[in-house]
Amino acid sequence: MKTIIEPFRIKSVEPIRMTSREERKLLMRAAHYNPFLLHSDDVMIDFLTDSGTSAMSAAQWAGIMRGDESYAGSPSFGRFEAAVRELMPFEHIIPTHQGRAAEKILFSIVGGKGKIIPNNAHFDTTRANVEYSGATALDLLIVEGRNPSSLHPFKGNMDVQKLRTLLEAEHQSVPLVMLTLTNNSGGGQPVSMENIKAVKALCQEFGKPLFFDSCRFAENAYFIKLREPDYQHHSVKSIVREMFSYADGMTMSAKKDALVNIGGWLALNNADWAQQARNLLIITEGFPTYGGLAGRDLEAIAVGLSEIVEEDYLQYRIRSTQYLGEALLKLGIPIVQPVGGHAVYIDAKAFLPHIPALQYPAQALVVAMYEIGGIRACEIGSVMFGRQTDGSEKAAAMELVRLAIPRRVYTQSHIDYVIECFETIVAEKDQLRGMKIVEEPPTLRHFTAKFDWV
Ligand code: F0G
Its domain of life (predicted)? Predict the structure, then answer.
């Protein structure tokens, strides 16, 4: 069969409020042309993020009911710990309320002034936590990872030669090496097993622990199965286990590949660091058997982890993201290729060449997507990265719009509707004007800035 159906049926639904283009124009104007300032019930298709937006299964909701809310020693923690260890065999598993809380704890222990944390590409919160500790966050992505049209199958790979040069020069300053699976900042691109092994070998040579930022580990494992010949006949679960066998620790946002709306953890083998982490956890998150979560959240994660490695799910997940990407390409819309796991990234600089970078072409496209189709997405370009610490403004390397797809939420007809909206966007794109910022906060301006047309 050619059609890959959603491998689930729907038991509980959330209505979508239908709006007209005229109504959406007014709503967008009232939100100062910033999608973060829209009310989500005015959005028809929400591609703002794949984080915390998954639909939970009946089994997860049943787990929620079973959650034990004891302060200490809850059996829900036991089930959570066993489910994590089934895939990721770490000694110490420490629950947190989301990924950035795990990062904060980790870098409070290993970061600090003078330290350097290399990664294939740090996600914003990871970079922010590294820098907040006083350390330097370094991206050592392969060059193909920065070229939107390169078809390299593993554009999330780390440049092993650059890592060697760093470790030779700065051996004392590097407390650990990180790999982000998949690389969100660069288009949801995977890291190959070969690259993981090469990075691990280098870490061993220099006596450095290897940590994974593991938010989308299952999508990464499925790409290894699809694209790395040696792994075609391996189960995703065994690929996941092999990936993590090369790691000494991990941070996790369960809001992605654990199919829940909140949660995360820090896991590691180093007993000394684990002790320090638990001490910090008690101050900031909670007792080590619940972290920042309720017992019921731990149950939902435990079930989610068994569902995320199901291959029917992953085939549907990766294929449906590709389906959207391929349809946009057919309409002549330039996207980051190959299509990543959790999102399609449109190259707005190439799509709207008449809008200069500092008139925010990706923001203009985000506004058009909402007005034309009620679709919400996120700018990843000069609005997000353009403001420099000295107050000046510089165009970002890329002007992207991310269409992040929530897990198990939308059906193929929702996606077909999105594709139809893009036909209109293509027809009208030459009339689209640039934008200007009329008000902005001193930092992280994309969340709250106010815009107008040029
Ligand atoms: N690492 C990566 C690669 C991420 O994508 C995120 C979150 C985090 C860490 C932090 O996790 O949100 O649970 O604290 N990414 C979301 C996104 C916000 O929209 O891409 P968190």
Answer: Bacteria
Q: How far is ligand 1, taken at its centre, from the CA of residue 249, in Å?
A: 17
One CATH from 3.20.20.80, 3.40.640.10, 3.40.50.1000, 3.20.20.60 for 58-308: 3.40.640.10
Q: How far is CA 376 from CA 217, 223, 412, 440, in A?
A: 26, 27, 17, 21
Query: Residue 314 contacts by C-beta under 8 Å, 6 or more apart in sequence?
Result: 218, 219, 222, 236, 308
CA 71 to chain CA centroid, Å, is 31
Pocket test for ligand 1, best of 213, 215, 259, 446 (most atoms within 8 A of CB): 215
216 Cα: distance to centroid of ligand 1 (angstroms): 10
What distance in Å separates the CA atoms of residue 444 and residue 446, rounded to the nearest whole number?
6
Pocket residue to mutate for ligand 1, from 184, 260, 285, most atoms within 8 A of Cβ = 184
Interface confidence, given as ipTM, is 0.99
pLDDT at 344: 97
Ligand 1 residue neighbourhood (C-beta within 6 Å): 49, 51, 98-100, 123, 125-126, 180, 184, 213, 215, 253, 255, 264
Ligand 1, atom 11, residue with closest C-alpha: 99
Atom of ligand 1 nearest to the CA of 182: 3
pLDDT at 443: 79
Domain boundaries, the chain: 21-50+310-453, 58-308
* Cβ–Cβ < 8 Å for 64, 296: yes
| Cα 98 to ligand 1 centre (Å) | 9
- The CATH architecture of the domain made up of 21-50+310-453 is Alpha-Beta Complex (3.90)
Asked if 122 contacts 310 with a C-beta cutoff of 8 angstroms, the reply is: no
Other residues' Cβ atoms within 10 Å of the Cβ of residue 253:
27
Give the H/E segment covering residue 420.
helix 412-428
**Per-block mean pLDDT, blocks of 10 residues, the chain (454 long):** 91 96 98 98 98 98 97 96 98 97 98 97 92 95 91 97 98 97 91 98 98 98 97 98 98 98 98 98 96 97 98 96 97 96 96 97 98 97 88 91 98 97 98 97 90 97
Nearest CA to ligand 1 atom 5: 184
Q: How far apart are CA 224 and CA 219, in angstroms?
A: 9
